[in-house]
Write a sequence for this structure.
């Protein structure tokens, strides 16, 4: 079969990224510019500034991506783009860019869900085999899914309130760590011990998650200690929080291993970059003799290569979009 | 010699094809989401006239001020066509485009929901200082000095830009004018 080259565009949050991906698995080139330093000044992503920076970066990123690939847009078989979920204004820049490139070069347009992109990041260096369990952990999502085949998703459970990444960021803010909070909590936790008692999130028998109770418990604990004039041991608090937060994921995945008999786990989304999570899941997978796939760091965080990977099955099925394609800030996988 | 004119700065979406400096064909959509109609209308304009993007000899884009999102869509598309096909691109603000109709120093304004974007232009249509935004309340105080206009003259825009320099598409940016929350 002829090789398929997809030019993929990702602009859902604060990274402008483009990639050329061959056959949904081989990254020919990847270009990413991050706006993290700019948003750090405001303590979080400012949507309007993000949209502006995507607009300024778009042709530079395209140039860099094509130069690295030593290819031209004419050589592509399709143009893929993240259309949801994410920041509306940011998504629009990428989607409009993809549409005009598709129109100019007469290439099919493929709309990709960002979360599905995170899952398919696992195809970039490995090959996902089915059935598998997919755990999505990011700033906006915490979900456990079963995939029986390409683009076949069944939801086992999801967070009933905050996403795990959101809880990390909020806890970071409470203890005074700069944006982005999640990675900073992880670093701090390495130096601490589990000395604070925090409530376990959900003790019910479902696959659902909950992080708002844990988050509130941390906030209350910090306020109470401050009022008593006690100094918080930030390292220990970070460690105690992380243990409970990750344990919640481990318990639910373990339940899924037991009840479904599935022997594969893929982890996707920004929080999959967390080394502690990776270590705990790895132990769990050993216990159940299951295969664990986590993309390497570069493909865990937002990038266009994963969008190219997720676009490939849609290319094969000729699931193309027309030019009225609109963005969506919210789009569930199932 | 075809030039493509793109204006997505506010609620009206206008795409115009100039042929040898004269308006040849156009597509106008008065309401609706630009993100849904812009590229389909552009496709229709190009295909009905059997023109490919590489055959364009120039692009003119209205780069603001107006709706942040609207302006961005026009600018992103103009940048990419210009960059990919190596087609010269020129930008003009809607206020400057309006000023071409007035042969004296004047203040020109365009209204949005909450106020008025204003620019002061010399007789030769050069901008004096910077654009600014007046809330509806402040606008009431200067009402008589500001010319509120809506309709640009496309022939004048083409003529005015004919001898102006092209912009490097990498550096083409929207004009926003209005401050955003975090900068206030």
């Amino acid at each position: 079969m002829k090789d398929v080259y997809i030019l993929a565009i990702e602009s859902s949050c604060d990274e402008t990224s483009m990639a050329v991906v061959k056959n949904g698995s081989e990254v020919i080139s990847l270009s990413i510019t991050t706006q993290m330093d700019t948003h750090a000044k405001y303590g979080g992503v400012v949507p309007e500034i993000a949209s502006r920076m995507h607009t300024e970066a778009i042709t530079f990123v395209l140039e860099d991506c094509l130069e690295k690939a030593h290819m031209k847009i004419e050589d592509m078989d399709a143009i893929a783009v993240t259309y949801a979920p994410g920041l509306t204004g940011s998504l629009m820049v990428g989607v409009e860019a993809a549409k005009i490139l598709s129109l100019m070069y007469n290439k099919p347009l493929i709309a990709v869900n960002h979360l599905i992109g995170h899952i398919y990041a696992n195809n970039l260096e490995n090959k996902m085999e089915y059935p598998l369990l997919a755990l999505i952990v990011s700033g906006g999502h915490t979900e456990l899914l079963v995939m029986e085949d390409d683009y076949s998703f069944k939801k086992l459970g999801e967070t009933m309130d905050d996403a795990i990444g959101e809880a990390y960021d909020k806890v970071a803010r409470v203890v005074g760590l700069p944006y982005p909070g999640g990675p900073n909590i992880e670093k701090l936790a390495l130096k601490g011990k589990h000395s604070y008692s925090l409530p376990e999130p959900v003790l019910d028998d479902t696959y659902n998650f909950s992080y708002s109770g844990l988050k509130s418990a941390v906030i209350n604990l910090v306020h109470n200690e401050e009022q008593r004039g006690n100094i918080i041991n930030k390292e220990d608090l970070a460690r105690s929080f992380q243990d409970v937060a990750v344990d919640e994921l481990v318990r639910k995945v373990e339940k899924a291993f037991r009840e479904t008999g599935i022997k594969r786990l893929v982890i996707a989304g920004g929080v999959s970059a967390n080394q502690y999570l990776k270590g705990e899941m790895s132990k769990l997978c050993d216990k159940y003799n299951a295969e664990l796939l986590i993309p390497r760091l570069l493909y865990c965080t937002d990038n266009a290569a994963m969008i190219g990977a997720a676009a490939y099955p849609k290319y094969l099925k000729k699931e193309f979009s027309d030019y009225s394609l609109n963005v969506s800030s919210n789009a569930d996988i199932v | 010699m075809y030039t493509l004119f793109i204006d997505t700065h506010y609620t009206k979406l206008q795409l115009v094809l100039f042929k040898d400096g004269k308006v040849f064909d156009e597509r106008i959509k008065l309401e609706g989401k630009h993100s849904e109609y812009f590229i389909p209308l552009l496709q229709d304009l190009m295909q009905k006239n059997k023109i490919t993007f590489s055959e364009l000899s120039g692009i003119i884009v209205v780069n603001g001020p107006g709706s942040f999102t609207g302006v961005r869509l026009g600018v992103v598309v103009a940048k990419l066509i210009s960059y990919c096909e190596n087609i010269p691109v020129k930008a003009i603000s809607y206020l400057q485009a309006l000023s071409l109709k007035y042969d004296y120093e004047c203040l020109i304004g365009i209204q949005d929901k909450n106020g008025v974007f204003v620019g002061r232009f010399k007789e030769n249509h050069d901008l004096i200082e910077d654009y600014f935004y007046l809330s509806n309340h402040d606008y009431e105080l200067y009402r008589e000095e500001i010319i509120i206009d809506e309709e640009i003259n496309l022939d004048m825009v083409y003529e005015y830009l004919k001898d102006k320099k092209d912009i490097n598409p990498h550096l083409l940016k929207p004009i926003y004018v209005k401050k955003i929350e975090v900068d206030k």
User: Anything to note?
Assistant: Chain B touches chain A at residues 33, 35-40, 42-43, 46, 53, 68-69, 72-73, 75-77, 79-81, 83-85, 169-170, 173-174, 176, 180-182 (CB under 8 Å). Chain B has one domain: 2-183. The radius of gyration of chain B is 16 Å. The mean pLDDT of chain B is 96.
